[in-house]
Amino acid sequence: MFSFEKFYLFIHSATEIGMVASGVVVDIFLWEQTHSLTPILIFNLGIFISWFVTSLFAPVITEITGLKIAHLASLILNIVFLALLYYLPELTYEPLLLGFAKGIQLGFYSPVSSVITSKIGSGQLQYLASRLAAMSQLVEMIIPPLMAVFIYQTGSYQTMLVVGVAASVFAGLLSLLCSYPTTDRKFSFSALLPVNDTNPEKTLLVPVLFLDGVRQGMFYSLLGIIILYFTNDLMLWGIFIFALETLSLVLDWIYPRIFSESDSLLTVGGASSLFVVASILFISYFNLTGVVILSVAYKILTVVYSINLETSVSRIIELDISRDDLSAEYAGFQDIYRSLGRIVPILALLYLNASLDNPFIIVGAIAVVGMVPFIMTNILSRSYVLKHWRDTIEIA
Hints:
Elements: H1 4-34, H2 37-55, H3 58-65, H4 67-87, H5 95-120, H6 126-154, H7 158-176, H8 205-219, H9 222-231, H10 234-258, H11 264-284, H12 288-317, H13 327-351, H14 359-370, H15 372-380, H16 384-395
C-alpha cells in the first residue's frame, strides 16, 4: 500500500480533470445547440437540487465507510455520468435529468474533498494542502481551454468524454493502491443543526454559507456562457478562460503577501465595490470590452473573498470543543446550506425568463450578487473570535 501524501496529489488532479470534463462538455454542448440560457439554467437547477438532497446522506456514508470507499463511489458515479452522455447523447435534451445525475456525483465527492482538506490542513500533511489548491487552479486554467480548442478543431464532444472517463479510472486505480486518512466511523446528526452546545458561533455560519451558495449558484456556469456569447468562438473562449485563470493564479499568490487578515473588511468591501461598478459599466458596454472588465473584476473579487471566507469559516469551525472528529459533519453542514443558496438565483433567473438578448435582468442580478461578499464579511465581523484574532494581528 502506497503512502497517501505521495499519491493523493495525482489522485486529486485526475479526479478534478474528470469532473471538469463532464461539466464543461455539457455547458458548451447546450449552448452550441440552443444558444439559450434556459437549458443551461435548468441543468444547473437539477445539479443544485440533487446536490442538496445528496448532502443529507453523503457525509454519513463518507464517515461510516471511510474516505477511500466514498471517493471511489464518487469516481464511479462520474464515470457512469460520462458513459451516459457518450452512449445516450439524447439525454442532453433532458437537462434537468442530466443535472440530477451530475448533482449526485458532486454531492458524493464534496464531503470527501472537504474531509481530506480538513485532515491535511494541519500537522505533517499541511504542505500538501497548498499543492492541492494550486493543482485545482491549474486544472481550471488548462483543461477547459484545451477541451474548447479540441472541440473547435474536431467538432467531437465524445473524445472529451473519453478523456474524462480515463482520468476518473486513473484516479480510481491510484486510490486502490493508496492508504487514506481514517475517520472515526461515527456520525453526529446533531452537528448538522445550526445550533449546538459545542460551538457558540455556529449560528453565524448559516447565513454566510447560504449567501456563499447564492454567489456560487449565480456564477456556476453563467460567466463562462456570457464570455462564449460575446466571443462567439470556442477557440477565443478557450484563450479568454486561460487568461482569466492565469490572472486568478497570480492574484492568489500576490494577495496574501500584501494584505493581512486585519484588512479583510477593507479589501472585500473594495473588491465588491469594484465588481458592482464593473456590472454597471457592463450595462453601458454590453459587448466584449464590457465582459472583459466584468470578468477581471469578478476574478479579483473571487480571490479576495475566497481567501478571507475560507479562513474565517475554518476559525469558527475550530471553535468546536467536541472531542469527536466532526470533519464529515461540518462538511455536510456546509454543503446543506450552500446547496440551498445555490438554488435561489437559478430559480429567480428562470422565473424572470433571463436572456442574453435582454441584458438588464442578467446584469442586475450580477450586480446584486456582487454585494454578497461584503454582506457576508459584515456578518462575520460579529464573531468574537474573529474580531479577537484580527485585534491580535493588529497589535502584533
